[in-house]
Amino acid sequence: MPEFRLDCATGQVVLMAPEREAREGGLGEPLDPRRHCPFCPGSEALTPHEVAARRPPGSPANAPDWQVRVFANRYPAVAAPPEETRDTPAPPGPAQPTVPGWGWHEVVVETRHHPLGLADLPVEEIRWVLEIWRARLCALRDLGNDPRQPRCEWVQVFKNSGPKAGASQPHAHSQIFGLPFVPAGPAAEYDQAADRGPGTTSPLPLDETLCLLQTEHYRASCPRVSRFMYEVHLHPLRPECQFAQEPLAQLFELAALLRRVLQALNSTANTPDYNLILHTAPLHRMVRGWRWRLEILPRLYSWGGLELGSGLVVNPLLPEQACHRLRANLSLER
Predict the structure, then answer these.
(1) Helical H segments across 142-276, by residue range
(2) What's the whole-model pTM score?
(3) Total tally of structural domains belonging to the chain
(4) Cross-strand pairs, 102
(5) Strand runs labelled E in 229-311
(6) Host domain of residue 161
(7) How much of the chain exceeds pLDDT 70, in percent?
């Protein structure tokens, strides 16, 4: 059973998830090239039953003709809450430093095609992935309508692309991670946004970002205080904190922007491993003065002892230089 444990000396919460050790490739060992990929069409029996999918009309669940497929993670970092639990668990604290690791952990297989990365997909297929993310956020939010179940309060969607970014499976996929409470880090960010007052409508003031590309409804920017080389954030121009509220009609535009940025990154930095993280507000709370955002975090180098010991991040590339180089490659879209 996973557990959340509080380090009372530092205030740091750690999720202990011993089940994760059993996952294939989870400890960095190379995968057998003769293995059958569990995420490819025809391998549906190797995964848990799907909870959502994009399929042709009339296609039954778990059939191999899916386009995007979602199922519970076989090696989850958190355990699904009991079906009838009236009390929503609280985070660990000084009075109870260890609590059960309940939550929701799902896998989104983004494409049928094993060799393709997200940047290689047509815009329409990237839009399908964004639609599935949005639909799962709505479904987890709606758990709160059932008084017999604990509410899912907070969700993060993330994608680990490549081994340096923590991916254990090469087939393109993302993950959806939900908790019955809001972790301390995001909670502090939401509170900071609220403290800035209702007139502020961005996680970063515009003068703290370098505009890479702007469309009718979205903007891609390089933060002036970047933690990673070629870090890029995508966010809506309107003040919307919930990705679940994003108009479906605009997701094609967002998909096209994401594709252009990823392809420029590939051209600029030789197709690096990266993390893609969707930050969205708590499912049952509106955060004034804060926008949802997609972060693209290239993993071109590993953090060393200084970063891990002090929390002080060293970025060897000025964001102004990164933005200039990425802009030069935006015209190379394939």
Answers:
(1) 184-195, 251-269
(2) 0.93
(3) 1
(4) 79
(5) 232-236, 274-279, 293-298
(6) 3-18+34-332
(7) 92
